[in-house]
Input
Amino acid sequence: MVSVPLLDWGDSSHFDARATRPCCLCGKPTPMRSHADEAVHKVCAEEWNAAHPDEPRRYTPPAPGRTQHDVGTWRFHNDGPTTAHLRAAAVTRDSTQRPASDRGAEQCGLFAA
Ligand SMILES: [Zn+2]
Output
Protein backbone atom coordinates (compact mmCIF):
# COMPACT_ATOMS: atom_id res chain seq x y z
CA MET A 1 0.00 0.00 0.00
CA VAL A 2 1.35 3.40 -1.01
CA SER A 3 1.32 6.17 1.57
CA VAL A 4 -0.60 9.26 0.42
CA PRO A 5 0.28 12.65 1.99
CA LEU A 6 -2.71 13.95 3.93
CA LEU A 7 -4.07 17.45 3.50
CA ASP A 8 -4.57 19.81 6.44
CA TRP A 9 -8.10 21.04 5.88
CA GLY A 10 -8.99 22.06 9.43
CA ASP A 11 -10.53 25.35 8.34
CA SER A 12 -14.33 25.37 8.48
CA SER A 13 -14.47 26.79 4.95
CA HIS A 14 -13.87 23.25 3.69
CA PHE A 15 -17.23 22.10 5.02
CA ASP A 16 -20.45 23.39 3.46
CA ALA A 17 -23.22 22.48 5.89
CA ARG A 18 -25.86 23.94 3.57
CA ALA A 19 -25.57 21.41 0.78
CA THR A 20 -23.85 18.36 -0.56
CA ARG A 21 -22.72 18.39 -4.17
CA PRO A 22 -21.25 15.63 -6.33
CA CYS A 23 -17.52 15.20 -5.75
CA CYS A 24 -15.65 16.46 -8.82
CA LEU A 25 -13.48 13.34 -8.73
CA CYS A 26 -15.69 10.40 -7.70
CA GLY A 27 -19.20 11.80 -8.24
CA LYS A 28 -20.54 10.82 -4.82
CA PRO A 29 -22.21 13.55 -2.72
CA THR A 30 -19.98 15.50 -0.35
CA PRO A 31 -20.23 18.61 1.84
CA MET A 32 -16.46 19.10 1.51
CA ARG A 33 -15.01 21.95 -0.58
CA SER A 34 -11.54 22.75 -1.87
CA HIS A 35 -9.99 26.22 -1.55
CA ALA A 36 -11.45 26.96 -4.99
CA ASP A 37 -14.91 25.81 -3.80
CA GLU A 38 -14.80 22.59 -5.80
CA ALA A 39 -16.94 19.89 -4.21
CA VAL A 40 -14.42 17.16 -3.41
CA HIS A 41 -13.85 14.55 -0.73
CA LYS A 42 -10.65 15.23 1.20
CA VAL A 43 -9.47 11.70 0.52
CA CYS A 44 -10.22 12.09 -3.20
CA ALA A 45 -8.17 15.30 -3.26
CA GLU A 46 -5.29 13.56 -1.46
CA GLU A 47 -5.37 10.68 -3.91
CA TRP A 48 -5.54 13.12 -6.86
CA ASN A 49 -2.45 14.93 -5.56
CA ALA A 50 -0.61 11.62 -5.21
CA ALA A 51 -1.67 10.54 -8.70
CA HIS A 52 -0.51 13.84 -10.24
CA PRO A 53 3.09 14.31 -9.06
CA ASP A 54 3.86 16.61 -12.01
CA GLU A 55 1.15 19.16 -11.15
CA PRO A 56 2.45 22.60 -10.03
CA ARG A 57 3.09 22.52 -6.28
CA ARG A 58 2.65 25.03 -3.51
CA TYR A 59 5.15 25.57 -0.71
CA THR A 60 5.33 27.27 2.65
CA PRO A 61 6.82 30.78 2.56
CA PRO A 62 10.61 31.02 2.70
CA ALA A 63 12.01 31.99 6.08
CA PRO A 64 15.52 32.15 7.49
CA GLY A 65 16.49 28.86 9.09
CA ARG A 66 13.44 27.01 7.87
CA THR A 67 13.17 24.81 4.86
CA GLN A 68 10.13 25.19 2.66
CA HIS A 69 7.59 22.40 2.72
CA ASP A 70 5.40 21.09 -0.05
CA VAL A 71 1.80 21.76 0.97
CA GLY A 72 0.12 20.12 -2.00
CA THR A 73 -0.78 21.05 -5.54
CA TRP A 74 -2.25 24.34 -6.71
CA ARG A 75 -5.59 22.59 -7.03
CA PHE A 76 -5.61 20.90 -3.61
CA HIS A 77 -3.31 22.14 -0.85
CA ASN A 78 -3.11 22.65 2.89
CA ASP A 79 -4.63 25.52 4.80
CA GLY A 80 -2.29 28.24 5.92
CA PRO A 81 0.19 30.52 4.22
CA THR A 82 1.85 29.59 0.97
CA THR A 83 4.63 31.31 -0.93
CA ALA A 84 4.45 35.11 -0.97
CA HIS A 85 4.03 35.59 -4.68
CA LEU A 86 1.04 33.25 -4.62
CA ARG A 87 -0.58 35.21 -1.81
CA ALA A 88 0.03 38.44 -3.70
CA ALA A 89 -1.63 36.90 -6.74
CA ALA A 90 -4.64 35.91 -4.63
CA VAL A 91 -4.99 39.43 -3.22
CA THR A 92 -4.72 41.00 -6.66
CA ARG A 93 -7.25 38.63 -8.08
CA ASP A 94 -9.93 38.93 -5.43
CA SER A 95 -9.53 41.31 -2.54
CA THR A 96 -13.14 41.17 -1.41
CA GLN A 97 -13.99 37.50 -0.97
CA ARG A 98 -12.27 34.33 0.13
CA PRO A 99 -8.63 34.60 1.21
CA ALA A 100 -6.40 32.12 -0.61
CA SER A 101 -8.16 30.44 -3.47
CA ASP A 102 -6.82 28.48 -6.37
CA ARG A 103 -9.37 29.91 -8.74
CA GLY A 104 -7.81 32.27 -11.20
CA ALA A 105 -4.30 30.89 -10.87
CA GLU A 106 -4.33 30.30 -14.61
CA GLN A 107 -5.12 33.96 -15.25
CA CYS A 108 -2.07 34.96 -13.25
CA GLY A 109 0.13 33.15 -15.75
CA LEU A 110 1.95 31.32 -12.99
CA PHE A 111 1.31 27.77 -14.17
CA ALA A 112 4.23 25.87 -15.58
CA ALA A 113 4.07 25.33 -19.32
ZN1 LIG B 1 -14.87 11.88 -3.96
User: Anything to note?
Assistant: Residues 85-113 have pLDDT under 50 and may be disordered.
